[in-house]
Amino acid sequence: MTRIAGVRLATAAAGIRYKNRDDIVVIEMTAGGTCAGLFTRNAFCAAPVTVAREHLAKGSIRYLLINAGNANAGTGVPGLRAARETCRLLAGMAGCAMSQVLPFSTGVIGQDLPVDPFAQAIPGLLKDLSEDSWERAARAIMTTDTVPKLQTRTVALSGGDVVITGIAKGSGMICPDMATMLSYVATDAVVPQALLQTLLANAVDHSFNRITVDGDTSTNDACVLLASGASGVVVDSADNEDGQRFAAALGEVCAGLAEMIIRDGEGATKLVRIRVESAADDAEAAAVAYTVAHSPLVKTALFASDPNWGRILAAVGRAGVADLDVDAIRIWLDDVCIVEGGGRHPEYTEQAGQAVMKRSEITIRIDLARGERVTEVLTCDLSYDYVKINAEYRS
Amino acid sequence: MTRIAGVRLATAAAGIRYKNRDDIVVIEMTAGGTCAGLFTRNAFCAAPVTVAREHLAKGSIRYLLINAGNANAGTGVPGLRAARETCRLLAGMAGCAMSQVLPFSTGVIGQDLPVDPFAQAIPGLLKDLSEDSWERAARAIMTTDTVPKLQTRTVALSGGDVVITGIAKGSGMICPDMATMLSYVATDAVVPQALLQTLLANAVDHSFNRITVDGDTSTNDACVLLASGASGVVVDSADNEDGQRFAAALGEVCAGLAEMIIRDGEGATKLVRIRVESAADDAEAAAVAYTVAHSPLVKTALFASDPNWGRILAAVGRAGVADLDVDAIRIWLDDVCIVEGGGRHPEYTEQAGQAVMKRSEITIRIDLARGERVTEVLTCDLSYDYVKINAEYRS
To answer: Can you tell me the ipTM of this complex?
Structure first.
């Protein structure tokens, strides 16, 4: 049961880029709900990101308008005009203010976004709105994704049950620096806007902001959390038991969606968890984790199921951590210790390493022996298909 | 004419990893010459790097001993013992002190280096030493390289002509943070050791330290400059006309070798120069250049000859430069301006972009409009063959 009372969705095939598939989505929230959003930190952010940030600041959001196939990024002033025009069209037909609509785009960068397909699709979209269209929406926002991504949780709070449902898309240009490519999460709980924003930021920091396919932070990353309030069940603090339960469930939805993005990473054949332990601070933990996660040599060894652990060691060594005591560092592939004392663990065997590398889910654990901070980054391998997908996309 | 009077070389097939090819090199310099060296900044540096650093500090270097196929990295204490033992063997047979030998290794990380093949090969190597073996040496140090890399220059100084000859190897795990995988340069000029080190550091900063294949800084990077002094022509300052001529020729040899490494980058089909202009400082120029050079999406677009300039723009945007004015940035593919005013240049055509992208040598020029600093980084594209080479290497 994915439904969120007070939130309705509709999809349509507007032909903006793709033929014979839905490529445009409207998500409507009942009046009186609250909305939180996080956006890419890429300086060349897309036009819809700029407009969505402006509109979100004014509050009272009623509609999200999303298209796939054209990112409306790198489009300068005409791009901003197109993003605003699509909001104006929807607002006019739905009877709300233009600033109550948040626009989102995903797809190819640098092509002008045509407004006509929106004008033609919006009347039908408004007629088709339904609480049951979450999966259709998850499909309509896909680009190089191969599977739709949807997560839902029901949480028992003191005032009754609330539901949290989210969808996401993303497969390449994935190294979110704020939120993933596109993700929309909704709940029927009553949550004040400021608290909603805090809850979303916390959840995203430990989910979407900790995944990477290729290190390329998108121009269009956006994550939105809607709280319709239709359940009447109130969450009014992050610190009491209800707040903690709600935050945990929201964290699960976001982490679940983030993991689905990595499983569906372009060309990915493996899900790889990089866990850095005993770091002196969060910055060095993240530096080591991302250096390993972005190493093309580590990623191709993972693709080949080759326990070429020297490449992991080399990546840790070049992560830029000052005064690293390499003799104290230990590295594991799942439960197999591969590195200790500056080199191969004395009991390590190629056979044991090979057995782990053949798995479709692998944890690389790195103990820096410097402090108490821990971080985890999810990534995938680098395969022929990544090159194929990205050498052929667009053409 | 590559010969350097006072420097002799020999190669042999020791069977350390490869069959039926030379894989070990000795370079001998006449007594009284000077030697400068630069090594990787990877914290997990290889055992021979540690030993070479120690020996170089003691001065009076007479021999370089190099093997290909086994990196002797990630090998802990046994690795250090093996590196020292190979120096001791050579010193014993050549009649010099062990600290007058610098050891170097390149190849697979994490495998113990066998000493026996050295013991068997060294007598023959010492007998075969010749001033004519530069190209054989360039071949013997190759791993995934497909061509030997050699550069030579003759410089007319006030005291007479001097020659500078260098060889290098490297194709993957290339993002030198001090010097490339392995490079050996020699001259017959007379150059005091401190000046030699300064001249080498300057040359390397603008050549080997400005190239990247895959962003993976090696554990074994090393660059050595020998000055045999056999010409009797003295270079005693970096600032006078002779010093500047010598530095220019040395810079050309290093830049030539660095470019050969990128042309021979694993799976590379294109040579790509990333030039960042009008940066506020060197750090942001390098950050932007390397972010573009390492972007898998930019690199696969280059492989596909697809003028998908949105990926370049996205990479510039995520380079972490604070307060970037995206509307002032301009980006060119060779002479074609693609980005201006935050989006596509008004006169840009897909046809013009396509024409550039089909070339085998391309310059991506990025004008940040923030200051006066300029930097250039050389890189290559990301092809199926990069994945193939790195998924299959070792097995």
So the answer is: 0.80
